[in-house]
Amino acid sequence: MMTPPCWICGSPGLEVVRASRISGELSSKEFAITDSAYGVTGELSRCPACGFMQCSELTDVLGYYETLQDGAYEAGSAERSRQARDVLRIALRFKPSGRLLDIGAGSGVLVEEASRMGYDAQGVEPSAWLCERGREKGLCIHRGVFPHPDVTGLYDVVTLVDVLEHVPDPVGLLRDMAQVLNPQGIAVVVTPDLGSVCAHVMGWKWWHFRIAHIGYFDHRTLNRAAEKAGLEAISVGRPIWYFKAGYLIERFQAYWPLFLRFPLPDFINRRVIRLNLGDSLQVVYRRCSDTSS
Q1: What range does the domain containing 38 cover?
Q2: How confident is the model at residue 75 (pLDDT cuts 50, 70, 90)?
């Protein structure tokens, strides 16, 4: 049977590098933002031409995101707000004001922080439940996917934080994003880095190997996708994450033998840990002067 082409470079003949670890019928639970079934993926194939790795069997996933509910995500909103502020501080260096669009906005954590910083901010999110959480806070969150009929005009800043790895047409999404940027606008893209030291050390146990992640980038394949979409990188860094200590320890305990796992005292959750494992990319892009590519 002929395998699908590479989502980045279009080359045929992808090589299967890992069989599917999915057992049973999928539901929106496996696509939760806080899912901790690390190492469980669909069948993964690598492109011999560009090195991009993709899960070609999971392309029709929108329905899972539309019905997704994730109470643990909302419980960590304070820590996610701190991370959003860090992302926005990067944007402020290039565009300190203007219209901002957050694609894959969740419950609007970044939209809310951007509004506080003076941006005219709105978001797009497929989950009806997360959209409702954002609207309860008075935020402008459009239910659906991007492009969206209610998202019109041009934007000074577009953010795409931990979204690109979830879509089967990453070049198309980046191209659509480029088309709504003002000529001097910027896009901030955050995505896991398959080429990182952490990814190599952890192997298939890396926490970014999850059912919901169907595309795996490194610096080279991410920039190749962006260039095809008419974008050029102007800043490259690593994002910082914030977690309650209890949440983080529970995630690490998933790697421990059962006899080493222990219940956590309540006081641990009051401490927030600032973490940068260097296994995600944070790239700022602008539109190329020649977008014919």
Answers
A1: 15-240+276-287
A2: confident
